[in-house]
C-alpha cells in the first residue's frame, strides 16, 4: 500500500521533503554524510581522503575537509565525526613516530662469555682501549684524541686456566647514550680508569662518579647486605699511565682519599708486571672460585674448571656438572682446602678456589 501524502491544515497535500543526505558506500563504511550544499573543495578533499595511500595523506585530506566544510547546524554531526577521525589518526601517527625514534640499539646487550664480564669505564683519553689491547687479542682503535671509541669492543683476557670477558665502552660524558649505562648495569663488575698523567686526576674521578651516580649506578667495594636504590656494582679503580711524569704523586693523593672506598691499583701498559698484577686483581674482583672435578680412579689433574660465586657449596658445584648428579649426590672427596687429601665432605661444604672434587652419588 503506497504511503499517503501528509495533509496540511488547508487540506492540500504537502509534498515529502527532499532528502539532502546520502549514505556513504565506500569500502571503509564511512559515516560522513553527503549534503547537497557541500562545496566542491570539500568533495575533492573527501575524494582524496578515500583514495589516500598513506596515513599521512589521509591526515592532510581530513584537515582540508574540516577547513572547507560549511558551518551550520546541518553539518554539526559531520564536523564532530571528522574531528574524531582526525584525532584518532594523529594518535596513530604519533605512536608510529615514537616506535621509530626509540628503536633499540644493537649494543643493548652483549652475551657473556668466560668466567665473568668486566666493563672498562672512564672519561675520554683515560687509556681504556690501550689497556684492552694489552690484556687481550682485541684490537680497538687507539688514538691520542678524545672520543675515538664509539662502539663497544669485546676482548677475552686469559688468567691462568680461565678467560674473563672485557668490554671497552665509549667514554663517559654528558652525551653518553643510554645503552652504555645499560651495559654497565649488566656487567659483573666495573673497572673505572683515571688518567694519572692528567692535571687533576681527582677531579676526573669525581666527574666520572657523578655521571654514574646520575644514571643511578653506584660503585662499591663489596655488595651491601641492604639493597640500595639503583644499580650497585663491585668496582676496581685503576690509575692508568702510571709510568708518566707526575703519576706517582697523583696516585698517592688518590690512595689517601679513596683507598678505603674502592680497591686502587696503578697500572701501565708498558710494564708487564703491572699487567700481571691487574689480571689477578680483576679475577679477585669477580668474587668467584674455580672448582675442578674428577671421576673415581682418574688422575688428580686440575683442568677445565667450573666457576662458581664465592661461598658456593659442594651441591652447587655438582649442579654445574649435571643436575641429575646433584639430585643423587651423597658426599664428595676433596683435594685442596680439606684437612687432608681425599677428605670426605658433605653436600653443604663451602668450596674454595682451586678445590678438586670427586662426587659420589
Question: What do you see in this structure?
Answer:
The protein is α/β, with parallel strands linked by helices. The chain has 3 domains: 24-101; 117-286, P-loop containing nucleotide triphosphate hydrolases (Rossmann fold), CATH 3.40.50.300; 289-360, Beta-grasp domain (Ubiquitin-like (UB roll), Roll). Helices cover 34% and strands 21% of the residues. It has helices at 40-51, 55-68, 76-101, 128-135, 178-186, 201-214, 247-258, 272-286, 314-321, 323-328, and strands at 6-7, 13-14, 21-22, 34-35, 117-122, 153-159, 162-168, 189-195, 217-220, 231-240, 264-266, 288-294, 306-309, 331-335, 343-345, 355-360. The strands form 4 sheets. Strands 5, 6, 7, 8, 9, 10 and 11 form a 7-stranded mixed β-sheet that branches. Strands 13-12-16-14-15 form a 5-stranded mixed β-sheet. A hairpin with a 2-residue loop joins strand 6 and strand 7 (162-168). Helix 2 runs antiparallel to helix 3. The chain starts with 5 loop residues before the first strand and ends with a strand.
Amino acid at each position: 500500500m503506497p504511503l499517503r501524502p501528509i495533509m496540511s491544515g488547508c487540506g492540500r497535500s504537502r509534498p515529502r521533503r527532499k532528502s539532502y543526505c546520502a549514505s556513504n558506500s565506500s569500502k571503509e563504511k564511512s559515516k560522513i554524510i553527503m549534503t547537497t550544499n557541500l562545496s566542491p573543495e570539500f568533495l575533492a578533499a573527501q575524494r582524496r581522503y578515500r583514495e589516500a595511500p598513506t596515513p599521512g595523506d589521509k591526515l592532510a585530506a581530513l584537515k582540508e575537509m574540516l577547513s572547507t566544510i560549511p558551518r551550520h547546524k546541518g553539518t554539526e554531526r559531520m564536523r564532530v565525526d571528522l574531528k574524531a577521525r582526525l584525532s584518532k589518526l594523529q594518535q596513530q601517527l604519533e605512536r608510529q613516530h615514537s616506535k621509530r625514534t626509540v628503536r633499540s640499539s644493537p649494543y643493548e646487550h652483549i652475551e657473556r662469555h668466560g668466567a665473568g664480564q668486566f666493563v672498562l669505564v672512564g672519561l675520554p683519553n683515560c687509556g681504556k682501549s690501550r689497556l684492552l689491547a694489552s690484556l687481550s687479542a682485541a684490537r680497538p682503535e687507539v688514538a691520542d684524541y678524545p672520543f675515538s671509541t664509539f662502539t663497544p669492543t669485546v676482548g677475552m683476557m686469559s688468567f691462568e686456566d680461565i678467560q674473563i670477558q672485557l668490554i671497552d665502552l665509549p667514554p663517559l660524558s654528558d652525551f653518553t647514550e643510554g645503552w652504555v649505562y645499560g651495559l654497565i648495569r649488566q656487567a659483573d663488575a666495573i673497572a673505572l680508569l683515571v688518567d694519572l698523567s692528567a692535571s687533576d686526576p681527582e677531579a676526573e674521578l669525581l666527574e666520572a662518579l657523578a655521571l654514574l651516580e646520575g644514571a643511578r649506578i653506584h660503585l662499591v667495594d663489596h655488595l651491601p647486605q641492604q639493597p640500595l636504590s639503583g644499580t650497585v656494582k663491585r668496582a676496581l679503580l685503576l690509575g692508568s699511565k702510571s709510568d708518566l711524569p707526575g703519576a706517582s704523586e697523583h696516585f698517592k693523593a688518590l690512595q689517601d682519599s679513596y683507598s678505603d672506598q674502592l680497591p686502587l691499583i696503578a697500572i701501565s701498559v708498558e710494564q708487564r708486571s703491572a699487567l700481571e698484577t691487574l689480571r689477578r686483581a680483576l679475577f679477585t674482583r669477580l668474587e668467584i672460585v674455580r672448582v675442578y672435578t674428577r671421576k673415581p680412579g682418574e688422575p688428580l689433574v686440575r683442568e677445565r674448571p667450573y666457576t662458581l660465586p664465592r661461598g658456593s657449596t659442594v651441591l652447587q658445584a655438582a649442579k654445574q656438572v649435571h643436575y641429575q648428579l646433584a639430585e643423587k649426590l651423597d658426599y664428595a672427596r676433596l683435594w685442596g682446602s680439606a684437612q687432608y687429601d681425599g677428605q670426605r665432605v658433605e653436600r653443604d661444604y663451602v668450596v674454595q678456589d682451586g678445590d678438586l672434587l670427586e662426587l659420589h652419588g
